[in-house]
Amino acid sequence: MAVRNQNGLMQAMVLDAPGEKVQMRAIPRPRPGPSQLLIEIAACAVCRTDLHVVDGELPHPKLPIIPGHEIVGRVIASGENVRDFVVGERIGIPWLGWTCGHCRYCLGGQENLCPNAKFTGYQIDGGYAEYTLADARYCFRIPDRYSDSEAAPLLCAGLIGYRALKMTGNAARVGIYGFGAAAHIAAQILHYQGRKLFAFTRRDDLAAQEFAGKMGAAWTGSSDTMPPEELDAAIIFAPVGALVPAALRAICPGGIVVCGGIHMSDIPAFPYDILWREKRLVSVANLTRQDAEEFLRLAPQVPIRVTMESFPLSEANTALTRLREGKLTGAAVLIPKRVDVSLS
Ligand SMILES: [Zn+2]
Ligand SMILES: [Zn+2]
């Protein structure tokens, strides 16, 4: 495949310091190391975690950093140790970018908890760019039925939604608090599995409630109200700690509340009585490669349909602002518009 930029530069949206906007830059296109792929990016979805990185709510990002960890693109070069992918193949790059392989978590099937892990768009430059590098061992083939921009949100919204759903076991009545990108994918899996969905949104967010209804919710309402029947499980995707006691109140004895985000505002104190009777409160952290393999097999079977809005790469700040303000329906996806970058 021809490399378009003769001078070896690429466009990227770069975060210099938390709290600032991402800035369009022309920077050298990276070269793959022995286990890496060089990817020409076709689409990169925008995740709430990107907002937490940009807003400085996650500690110690690599700086400057190119955010973005829901990347779909094509392999244009690979290192000498790569065996699994060939040039021209379409692949997806998720949040989990590298793990150590020898800690107790890696050895015990919980690589998502590896203390040495590196994450895409946080400690490794990510997908708000025309090209990126990825360790081939953490990349996945994308099912053919999806276009590039439809597939991108599967790689975090989909994967984290799937891992959160797995934690609810076979709960028949599931509440979801915060109806954005992850929720709209989880809703379709719940529907496919014959489970009943109760969707909670910000108060008076009728657009989100209508969207949830279209995605198969049996009931929609605002997050400060109780559902019409007891829930067996609840997943909280909104980064709002006050939802934890609300969800604990909504679930039945023996039920589970799953916190699906990487960051949440402080959880207010609550009476022990709402946790009593073997209710469980857990978080979901990151993903394993097994989650990705399972989920990408399941997605075309459901089949999961992705609702998204696309933005040119140069409008990454607009997409982030829309996400922060809850003004997106489904997922935002950035599309690099390739133009020759010439600084000299
Ligand atoms: Zn490890
Ligand atoms: Zn994410």
Automatic annotation (TrEMBL):
<dbReference type="InterPro" id="IPR011032">
    <property type="entry name" value="GroES-like_sf"/>
</dbReference>
<dbReference type="InterPro" id="IPR014187">
    <property type="entry name" value="ADH_Zn_typ-2"/>
</dbReference>
<dbReference type="InterPro" id="IPR002328">
    <property type="entry name" value="ADH_Zn_CS"/>
</dbReference>
<dbReference type="InterPro" id="IPR036291">
    <property type="entry name" value="NAD(P)-bd_dom_sf"/>
</dbReference>
<dbReference type="GO" id="GO:0008270">
    <property type="term" value="F:zinc ion binding"/>
</dbReference>
<dbReference type="Pfam" id="PF08240">
    <property type="entry name" value="ADH_N"/>
</dbReference>
<keyword id="KW-0560">Oxidoreductase</keyword>
<dbReference type="GO" id="GO:0005737">
    <property type="term" value="C:cytoplasm"/>
</dbReference>
<comment type="similarity">
    <text>Belongs to the zinc-containing alcohol dehydrogenase family.</text>
</comment>
<keyword id="KW-0479">Metal-binding</keyword>
<dbReference type="InterPro" id="IPR013154">
    <property type="entry name" value="ADH-like_N"/>
</dbReference>
<protein>
    <recommendedName>
        <fullName>alcohol dehydrogenase</fullName>
        <ecNumber>1.1.1.1</ecNumber>
    </recommendedName>
</protein>
<feature type="domain" description="Enoyl reductase (ER)">
    <location>
        <begin position="8"/>
        <end position="334"/>
    </location>
</feature>
<dbReference type="GO" id="GO:0004022">
    <property type="term" value="F:alcohol dehydrogenase (NAD+) activity"/>
</dbReference>
<keyword id="KW-0862">Zinc</keyword>
<dbReference type="InterPro" id="IPR020843">
    <property type="entry name" value="ER"/>
</dbReference>
